[in-house]
Write a structure and sequence with these properties.
The protein is of the alpha/beta class. The chain folds into two domains: 4-68, Beta Barrel (Ribosomal Protein L25, Chain P); 77-221, SPOUT methyltransferase, trefoil knot domain (Alpha/beta knot, 3-Layer(aba) Sandwich), CATH 3.40.1280. Helices cover 27% and strands 27% of the residues. The model has no long low-confidence stretch (mean pLDDT 92).
């Protein structure tokens, strides 16, 4: 763990619930006088605290110092991912966070199951844990679009990953990339995308959506 998250990191006295931060006291076995580093993931500031006291339900940390220390993606890649099973999305999020995706737009395509509802609070917790582990200092942005048309109104120049003779190259400069759901895009959606740049993958196999997402992101950000 590179740092500990708390929404109020930076204030003079940090009060934390013992149960919510069990890993500090049971795994890391912190004791009075030990120091730790904290972030609130809204800026690049790293805050150092010393553990002042431990009670039955609450521990108190005293602020020592703050310094600017950023670990941010080298490229602001925007990923548009057509919605699939939320459990698969949640399992894939930490990898995308570690690779450095700046923003994810979740798009309900025609072949997305409309019963799939994304739990943004749960995904936020997953991203916080991922940031603590990998050291990323600002959380990925998440947003949602009800269909492909509304997405294209916001991001009309996204590169589309689909079956295509022209293949994605690691040297390609791509700022926004769209990847379809299981089953691909519908005929109507392909008509909407007929003016967008399209690139394929060198792999000949039919990839699962999450495999395609990780592969594309890794190739662009490698």
């Amino acid at each position: 763990m590179q740092f500990v998250y708390h929404e109020n990191a930076g204030i003079p006295l940090l009060h934390v619930e013992i149960r919510a931060y069990e890993h500090l006291f049971k795994v890391r076995r912190m004791g009075v006088g030990d120091t730790s580093q904290w972030r609130h993931l809204n800026d690049a500031m790293l805050h150092t605290y010393v553990l002042e006291s431990i009670g039955k339900k609450e521990a108190i940390f005293q602020w020592q110092q703050s310094e600017e220390s950023a670990l941010v993606p080298s490229q602001n890649l925007h990923l548009a991912w057509c919605v699939i099973d939320p459990k698969i999305i949640e399992k894939t999020l930490p990898m995308l966070n570690e690779l450095g995706v700046y923003k994810i737009s979740f798009v309900y395509a025609e072949f997305s199951q409309k019963s799939h509802k994304l739990d943004y609070e749960r995904m936020r917790r997953i991203l916080i844990n991922s940031c603590q582990q990998c050291g990323r200092t600002k959380m990925m942005i998440l947003e949602e679009f009800k269909n492909l048309q509304t997405y294209l109104e916001a991001y009309p120049k996204s590169t589309v990953i689909d079956f295509c003779e022209q293949k994605l190259d690691a040297k390609d400069v791509i700022e926004s990339v769209l990847i379809g759901p299981e089953g691909g895009f519908s005929i109507k959606e392909r008509e909407l995308l007929n003016t967008n740049p399209v690139l394929g993958l060198t792999c000949n196999a039919i990839l699962r959506s999450e495999t395609a997402v990780v592969s594309v992101v890794a190739k662009i950000l490698a």
